[in-house]
Amino acid sequence: MLVTAKRLTLPARVKALTVPLPAGKHIRPDLDDDEPAVLWLSKTAPPPGLWEELRAAHPTSGLWPLLLTPLEGDAARPWVEGELVPDDMSDPASHDPADLLSSWWAGSETGGGAWPGLAPAAGPDEAAADATADREAAALLASRRQWRLGLVAAGRGADAPTVAGWDGPANHTGDTAEISAVLRSWEDRFGARVVGLGYAELFLSVAAPPATVDEALRIGAEHVAFCPDTLNDLPLDAYAAGLVDLPAWHFWWD
User: Fold this and answer.
1) pLDDT at position 112
2) 153: which residues sit within 8 A by CB, 6+ positions away?
3) Nearest partner of 172 among 233, 87, 110, judged by Cα
4) d(C-alpha 253, C-alpha 3), whole Å
């Protein structure tokens, strides 16, 4: 199982926060009191600016903020009901993202031709990555979706879905640590940040998106391998064209 941010438990970290929080509660897997809490969840939508403040505090708090939206038609799932399975997850560090993406590409009905390999790193700037994440969080909150704030004791945002035990991509992989392994790579190569999660959705900010269609084709292939449903019946070249200069990536697993 993945080792979370060291030493302090999630409740202890939340208690030690210097950033004021709205009303909320700790969520345990299956709401089992014998299980440790893996998620702090606000009762209502967070106020503007709070996600950004918590993101900035992460290096000292060890808590990664997430904007969380429920399953359409059921506001309690998965967050309020604790539909979380952290014990089913491995460690992202034990997976090679290039191997994962190559394997998924080969097994995908939409993957065509030989696997092109990982797209080159874009050399993202950390300050730009943080600023882009803050803008995406504000944009998501301004949308008409139902949002709550979540906090997870994760060393980096890429690991937060795994630490929380989120299994939104279960129809693609039963181990969210594989998803986090790729997210780590995207953090490093493109300045991606995990901003939000839905029942089976993932919302990322991207500080260094592809600048040309040729660059986008390589990244588009990674997206298809990572989440085959992302094409939504588009051909790869049309999908890739939409990635040029796009500062946010959204994935949904059927």
Assistant:
1) 62
2) 4, 5, 8, 9, 10, 13, 62, 63, 64, 163
3) 110
4) 26
Which three-class secondary structure state does DSSP give residue 121?
Answer: coil
Is the pLDDT at 4 greater than 80, yes or no? no
pLDDT tops 80 at residue 5? no
**Which among 37, 145, 142 is positioned nearest to 84, based on CA atoms?**
37
Q: Does residue 1 carry a pLDDT above 50?
A: no
Contacts with 127 (C-beta within 8 Å, 6 or more apart), sequence order: none
Element (H, E) at 193: strand 192-197
Looking at this protein, which amino acid is placed at residue 168?
Answer: G
Residues 6 or more apart in contact with residue 220 via CB below 8 angstroms: 236, 237, 239, 240, 243
142-178 tens-digit pLDDT:
998 899 999 999 999 999 999 999 999 999 999 999 9
Predicted confidence (pLDDT) per residue in 62-105, tens digit:
999 999 999 999 999 999 999 999 999 999 999 999 999 999 99
Find where tokens 């991207």 sit: 206
Give pLDDT, residue 3.
43
Containing H/E element for 151?
Answer: strand 148-153
Q: To 10 degrees, the CA torsion angle through 225, 228, 234, 237?
A: 0
> How far apart are the C-alpha atoms of 51 and 148, rounded to whole Å?
10
Q: How many CB atoms lie within 10 A of CB 87?
A: 10
Q: How far is CA 102 from CA 223, 240, 243, in A?
A: 11, 18, 20
- Model confidence pTM above 0.85: yes
Q: How far is CA 124 from CA 15, 207, 240, in A?
A: 33, 6, 20
